[in-house]
Amino acid sequence: MQLTQEQIIAIKKQRGLLDYSITQLANEINVDRHTLSNIIKRGQRKVNKPTFEKLNNWIIDQYTTIK
């Protein structure tokens, strides 16, 4: 599956707002830190379906949950 550019931007933006390292964010989302690093640093868009779903659900949660 392919992440959109908007999804990648949302992940980067929320990471910055939360002031999380890649490892902290990967642990929160429950995805591999190397995969997340490739998405954030290299703009990797192709991910497997479970990773796509975890990332997408996390983005939705971040924008719909007041913390």
UniProtKB/TrEMBL annotation:
Keyword check for DNA-binding: yes
TM segment ranges: none
The keyword DNA-binding is assigned to this record: yes
Stretches assigned to coiled coil: none
Gene3D superfamilies in alphabetical order: lambda repressor-like DNA-binding domains (1.10.260.40)
Top-rank lineage group of the source organism: Bacteria
GO MF annotations in UniProt: DNA binding
Keywords for this protein: DNA-binding
Protein name: DNA-binding protein YlxM (UPF0122 family)
Native organism: Lactobacillus colini
Lineage of source species: Bacteria, Bacillati, Bacillota, Bacilli, Lactobacillales
